[in-house]
Write a structure and sequence with these properties.
Distance between the termini: 38 Å
Strand content: under 5%
Largest sheet: none
Number of helices: 4
Shape: elongated
Number of strands: 0
Helix content: over 70%
Order of helices and strands: HHHH
Length: about 100
């Protein structure tokens, strides 16, 4: 019974690369967005590291803690942004060239 339900739920639609005009320009736009996001992560990491250092130097635990958190968050964001293409390829059957 479950096998028949799974077959009925499949709409049979697959992604294609020639069905949408402007797909090449959209890919370039997304690639530029990835680059901009990684540059923003680097800037945020530097600012967070500076806040961490200044907070530690001035014995301000609040600023030091926020700086540590900022460094961890921006490092995680950079990892996710940098691996976005591989993650999408792994979790779906869409082939991204």
């Amino acid at each position: 019974m479950l096998r028949y339900m799974i077959i009925l739920q499949d709409p049979g639609i697959t992604p294609n690369t020639n069905g949408l005009p402007g797909l090449g320009a959209f890919r370039q736009l997304v690639g530029a967005l990835l680059t901009f996001s990684l540059v923003a992560c680097v800037a945020a990491f530097v600012i967070s590291a500076a806040a961490w250092a200044m907070g530690s130097f001035n014995s301000n635990a609040h600023f030091a803690g926020k700086g540590k958190t900022g460094c961890l968050v921006t490092a995680g964001a950079a990892i996710l942004i940098g691996s976005a293409n591989g993650l999408i390829r792994f979790f779906s059957s869409i082939v991204l060239n």
